[in-house]
């Protein structure tokens, strides 16, 4: 095992490459207008802000983001929120849409191809290490610690892994490892996931985070591009090949996760379904939330929207503007309305006598007087008419809106337009 001896952080010699091209179809109509990484989260952020903030907070100053599906909202957000990188400080932030750079007909064919098609751009920055990231998960992690393990272990690739119960691992790529966490097999969504040596009830599931030396990664991408049977995917092609022909090592999230003092667990969420998205947002309303967004030592960077402060007005019985166990963003007006265990994103307006209970209301929605919302996700820009009730009559809600198996209701502008 090679020990890192330089005092220079490895992150200074690394580039983070974020794969942000996926739709996230399990989020249904919430991703009709935007890619999954561009979906709003936590009151004011976007999902991609977590991976990007982890990179910045880890000391990485060269970042590339590959986009593809309906990327306008995502690109606009990154231009507004992430334009502070300065070339004169050896910093860079490249937005890399699929742009038929290799041929006139070829878009990004897979996660590995999304890096392969931009090798020339990466080479111009000359990073020694590449940190490949998924742009659609909620977590806080110090990639510097993963880079250190990668160098010290002599691995060809280091794979970020979650320790999960075996019965929950079937939806992931799962690592079979030896007692030193060297990966001996990579199994995609197995029916019977392999356990961890010494703890067979748990399994190591891939986080979609990979660390390579850049030269080695380029060699693998070029080799893979010449294989006509490849699907050009890291999890399906690149990693299994290295496991078989090289040295792949697992890095456990527990070794590099960031937790504020009051956070009692390692928090990682794939908010890929409406139910998971709803739960992760509502987690933030707990008195002691599982994920602390108030941690000033590891901030989640996002667009600093110029907005007036939130406002609460009226103080009479039945018409009192207040919010309990809720996150209320700037430019919101709670006018004689009752908000409980909910998130109001920027610019939400709630009229008198309206109420929101366990509601995730995205930016610039308008909730009319007397409307009642229960266990809902309201997409951005929706206008809820006066007196409308959502979340109390499942049969009526199912005819008008999207409703999940757990009874969470999604309301979009197109759904509301059909009711007129």
Automatic annotation (TrEMBL):
<feature type="site" description="Could play a key role in the communication between the regulatory and the substrate sites">
    <location>
        <position position="68"/>
    </location>
</feature>
<dbReference type="GO" id="GO:0008878">
    <property type="term" value="F:glucose-1-phosphate adenylyltransferase activity"/>
</dbReference>
<dbReference type="InterPro" id="IPR011004">
    <property type="entry name" value="Trimer_LpxA-like_sf"/>
</dbReference>
<feature type="binding site">
    <location>
        <position position="206"/>
    </location>
    <ligand>
        <name>alpha-D-glucose 1-phosphate</name>
    </ligand>
</feature>
<dbReference type="GO" id="GO:0005978">
    <property type="term" value="P:glycogen biosynthetic process"/>
</dbReference>
<feature type="domain" description="Nucleotidyl transferase">
    <location>
        <begin position="17"/>
        <end position="286"/>
    </location>
</feature>
<comment type="function">
    <text>Involved in the biosynthesis of ADP-glucose, a building block required for the elongation reactions to produce glycogen. Catalyzes the reaction between ATP and alpha-D-glucose 1-phosphate (G1P) to produce pyrophosphate and ADP-Glc.</text>
</comment>
<comment type="similarity">
    <text>Belongs to the bacterial/plant glucose-1-phosphate adenylyltransferase family.</text>
</comment>
<feature type="binding site">
    <location>
        <position position="173"/>
    </location>
    <ligand>
        <name>alpha-D-glucose 1-phosphate</name>
    </ligand>
</feature>
<keyword id="KW-0320">Glycogen biosynthesis</keyword>
<dbReference type="InterPro" id="IPR005835">
    <property type="entry name" value="NTP_transferase_dom"/>
</dbReference>
<dbReference type="InterPro" id="IPR029044">
    <property type="entry name" value="Nucleotide-diphossugar_trans"/>
</dbReference>
<dbReference type="InterPro" id="IPR011831">
    <property type="entry name" value="ADP-Glc_PPase"/>
</dbReference>
<keyword id="KW-0321">Glycogen metabolism</keyword>
<comment type="subunit">
    <text>Homotetramer.</text>
</comment>
<protein>
    <recommendedName>
        <fullName>Glucose-1-phosphate adenylyltransferase</fullName>
        <ecNumber>2.7.7.27</ecNumber>
    </recommendedName>
</protein>
<feature type="domain" description="Glucose-1-phosphate adenylyltransferase/Bifunctional protein GlmU-like C-terminal hexapeptide">
    <location>
        <begin position="308"/>
        <end position="411"/>
    </location>
</feature>
<dbReference type="InterPro" id="IPR023049">
    <property type="entry name" value="GlgC_bac"/>
</dbReference>
<dbReference type="Pfam" id="PF00483">
    <property type="entry name" value="NTP_transferase"/>
</dbReference>
<dbReference type="Pfam" id="PF24894">
    <property type="entry name" value="Hexapep_GlmU"/>
</dbReference>
<keyword id="KW-0547">Nucleotide-binding</keyword>
<keyword id="KW-0548">Nucleotidyltransferase</keyword>
<comment type="pathway">
    <text>Glycan biosynthesis; glycogen biosynthesis.</text>
</comment>
<keyword id="KW-0119">Carbohydrate metabolism</keyword>
<dbReference type="InterPro" id="IPR056818">
    <property type="entry name" value="GlmU/GlgC-like_hexapep"/>
</dbReference>
<feature type="binding site">
    <location>
        <position position="108"/>
    </location>
    <ligand>
        <name>alpha-D-glucose 1-phosphate</name>
    </ligand>
</feature>
<feature type="site" description="Could play a key role in the communication between the regulatory and the substrate sites">
    <location>
        <position position="107"/>
    </location>
</feature>
<dbReference type="GO" id="GO:0005524">
    <property type="term" value="F:ATP binding"/>
</dbReference>
<keyword id="KW-0808">Transferase</keyword>
<keyword id="KW-0067">ATP-binding</keyword>
<dbReference type="InterPro" id="IPR005836">
    <property type="entry name" value="ADP_Glu_pyroP_CS"/>
</dbReference>
<feature type="binding site">
    <location>
        <begin position="188"/>
        <end position="189"/>
    </location>
    <ligand>
        <name>alpha-D-glucose 1-phosphate</name>
    </ligand>
</feature>
